[in-house]
Each structure stands twice: as structure tokens, then as C-alpha cells.
Amino acid sequence: MPQRDEITQLIDKTERYLTELLLPFWITRAADRAYGGFLSYYDRHGVATAETTKTFLLHIRLLYTFSSAHRAGYGWGACAELARWGADFLLDHFWDDEHEGWFWIADREGRPTVPNKVGYGHCFGIYAFSEYALATGDPRGRAAAERTYAAVCKHMADTRYGGYYELM
Description:
- The protein is mainly α.
- The protein has one domain (4-155): Glycosyltransferase (Alpha/alpha barrel).
- The protein has five helices and three strands.
- Strand 2 (105-106) and strand 3 (112-114) form a beta hairpin.
């Protein structure tokens, strides 16, 4: 079993990585100021590539990350701003009002290109929007988490054998 000082060193190392590298990388690069949402494709030098496809999974993970970081006191306010930026794009472009659920992939402007609904992503949707609501107090977060849960129960639950289907 690791000793207390080893654990403390690992915690310190992880926090430095988070605050000195990981969060600053995404805080300074993620927002797509031209079309909304986040850019997610970067080369090994951290420069955005020409690939501008926007995936629900990256957007929902960044929503969770920025919300959680803000709630934990990181990001100096930038994380809350970016969380709201991501929530706006997700709510405006990824929710399917007609069939319920989150589209899987969109183009840079937010037009769905892969309209499939994936259970894995919906689970992240529940987590991320719940965390967003807690971090920012924005009531849209709770509403989106509840709406996502309702869609999963309605469209993905296997009422015959139990469990859930992965695709809606």
C-alpha cells in the first residue's frame, strides 16, 4: 500500500498537470468563436487542424470538465464561461426535438451529420448537465439532465429482458 507522502506527491503532481497544462490547453483553444461549440482536433503542437467535425461526446465531456473544474475552484471564472458556451451549443444544435435524444455528430455549424443516438453519450449527458447545473446554477442544466434521462428510459430501456439498448 502506498505511503501517505507518496499519495500526497501523486495528488500534487496531478493537480499541477491539471492546472498548468490540461486546463490551460483547453481553456485557450477549445471555444470555436466563429460557429459556437468547441473545436476538438489539434496536431501534436496544439494547433487546430482543418478537421472541424463536432462530436456530441467531446462536447459533453468538455461541458462536464469545465463545470466540474469551475465547481472545484479552478479556471478563474473561464471554466464557467466555457461551460455555458458548450451548454448553449449543445442545447441549440444537438438535441433532437422530434425523436428525443442527442445527435451523435454535427458539422462545424451544428447541423447533424450522424443523427444516431448513442447510450454511452446519453449517460455522459446526464452527468455533464447535472454537474453544469450544480456548478453554474443554470436551470437548463437540470432540465437537460432530466430530459436526457427520460429519453433513455423511454427509448433505450429493454422492457422485455431488462437493461438498456446502446443505440436509440
